[in-house]
Specification:
386 residues
């Protein structure tokens, strides 16, 4: 924001040449990105190319050409004709320039309701913060990745990056909210202390929600029955589980959203049934108390590490021994016994160098049964019992 204020304060945006260059940049954006825009509108809204071109690109091109042809008249201090455009919004005529304009886009006309106000703002010599709609991810990605390449960077900011940082900042604050047993109600919880209240307030501000509603959502559970909606208080342990569940969901949704944005930006074919995965088998966490999910992750990593050990150390050194090659034996940590205890299954991997797709299949190790052995197999059997 400070950069935008300084840029506006420099007086650069008051020049006719500057406004003209920005409007021409927007026109180049529409021309060069036309094919991508039409594809994005099909992905997000299911709009046919003819309909999409007529509703969005053609209308915007008319607005841009009109603005360019009348720009000198608009800032001359003389009366000028204004186009009559029907938009799904309200507006008022105010003195220009304003300095900084916030544009919140709409999903149903993602380009029209983003760029029409942007054309007016630039023509009036303003800097702009544009917030594209999350409901049209393909269109929003084109706006976020494309517009900065056609406009002066100091005059426009898009809210994607800021939104990511806000969510990431909210998650640790959410994790710092602790609960204590309520003295007024049995089996209910309240915020533990003033510090927890502060973290709740900050979390609510970052996520732009009501603090009381957030506290209520963490400390209570809603059960919907055919007859009524029942709110049930949670004890401190239950509220903590609710808090952790919300934090995990926020992080998971953010991760999925980022992956979707990246896939759209690199042009991934949504109909493709093939992919290339990249897996780092060495970087896993060791917590004081590992969850079952983390246990499964670590077990998988150890299986991959064992595959590496088998082919790089064991098989090669056995070959050296058979061929009588003089070499120094390489010591390495072998966790095969632990893997047999846990899983007792054999895994076969087909891998590409650096970019690997792993296909895993399990086969039986028992002589008298088709069922695999090990702790995980016993857990599976126990789950079927009442």
């Amino acid at each position: 924001m400070n950069d935008m204020k300084e840029y506006y304060g420099s007086g650069e945006t008051k020049k006719v040449s500057w406004r003209e260059s920005q409007l021409k940049g927007l026109r180049r954006f529409l021309i060069e990105k036309e094919e991508d825009i039409l594809k994005a509108l099909m992905l997000d809204l299911g709009k046919h190319q003819v309909e999409a071109f007529k509703d969005e690109i053609e209308t915007l091109m008319k607005s841009l050409n009109f603005a360019l042809s009348n720009l000198k008249y608009w800032i001359s201090g003389k009366k000028a004709k204004l186009p009559q455009i029907a938009l799904l919004s309200s507006a008022e005529i105010v003195p220009e320039p304003l300095g900084l304009v916030l544009i919140i886009s709409s999903w149903n006309f993602p380009f029209g309701l983003s760029l029409e106000p942007l054309i007016g703002a630039v023509a009036a010599g303003n800097t702009v913060v544009l917030k594209p709609s999350e409901l049209s991810p393909a269109c929003s990605s084109i706006l976020a990745l494309g517009l900065p390449n056609f406009l002066d960077l100091p005059i426009i900011r898009l809210c994607f990056q800021e939104a990511i940082f806000i969510v990431i900042a909210a998650i640790p604050h959410l994790g710092n909210i602790n609960f204590a047993k309520s003295e007024e109600e049995t089996d209910s919880s309240v915020l533990e202390n003033e510090e927890s209240k502060l973290h709740l307030q900050i979390t609510a501000e970052l996520l732009m929600c009501d603090p009381s509603a957030l506290e209520d959502a963490l400390c209570k559970r809603v059960m919907i029955t055919p007859e009524e909606v029942i709110k049930r208080s949670l004890d401190p342990l239950g509220a903590t589980v609710s808090r952790d569940g919300l934090a995990k969901t926020l992080y998971s949704c953010l991760f999925d959203w980022l992956v979707q944005k990246i896939n759209v930006s690199i042009g991934q074919d949504p109909e493709s049934k093939c992919l290339i995965g990249v897996l780092d088998i060495y970087g896993f966490e060791s917590f004081k108390n590992n969850s079952f999910e983390q246990f499964c992750i670590n077990f998988t990593n150890e299986k991959l590490q064992q595959h590496f050990n088998q082919h790089v150390f064991k098989m090669e050194q056995e070959r050296y021994t058979k061929e009588g090659i003089d070499w120094n034996y390489l010591e390495f940590v072998d966790n095969q016994d632990v893997l047999d205890l846990i899983g007792k299954v054999y895994t076969y991997f087909m891998a590409m160098l650096h970019f690997a797709i792993f296909i895993t299949r399990f086969q039986s190790d028992r002589a008298t049964s088709n069922k695999p052995g090990g702790i995980i197999a016993l857990l599976d059997e126990a789950c079927y019992e009442k």
